[in-house]
Amino acid sequence: MTFDRETKNMIAIIAFFTAFVLAINYIVVPDADQSFISWSVGLFVVAVMFWIWIRRDDLAAKRTDTLKSAEDAVREAEDLAKKTKDKVGAKIDIEDEKVVESIAEAVKEVKKEVVEPVKKAVKEVKEEVVETVEEVKKEVAKPVKEASEPDDLTKVEGIGPMYASLLIDAGVTTYAQLAALSQDAIEKHIKDAGKRRPASVETWAEQAGLAAKGDWDGLEKLQASLDGGRRK
After folding, report:
1. Looking at the domain covering 153-231, what would its CATH class be?
2. Is the pTM of this model over 0.70?
């Protein structure tokens, strides 16, 4: 399947805009589906790859035009040298021979001054594109890696490995998401998983809020006033 430049650019713009909207929804909506971030990253990669494709096509077209111009110049110089030598034939004198040699030297100079720099420029462009693609891969891999690593919810007193796993399976993978949930919403996740409601659930969101802010001193102070996550 082939796409013209306008189609490629339109696909890239739509993919980038959709990725942006999904990312905003994931950030703004507390209970947003975890798959939103994966789709956002994937569509961002699609947009970047299409823009790189457009860039490579533009460079290839420019390279083709430059090479064609250089080849035409070389061909014209060689034809001129051949015609000059054929006209004179065996009667060519020393001065005419020097003219032909000068033309031949000019042809060599054209090859040296035009063709070689173009080949070098093409090589540099290819290396630049490869480096750009590698950088894009690294930048895209960062949010994917970060998104795949949930917060340690067991730092919230009262949440053990079982309840942490239960919450993660329900899509609650960060302190911020847990802090944004009401007690009823948390209890619903627990009930849907067929587990017993723990008495400490009433403080989970409050503790998670401090953890989300990085206020570990505040969290430690709060937990010191709790008994197994429950208010004394």
Report:
1. mainly alpha
2. no
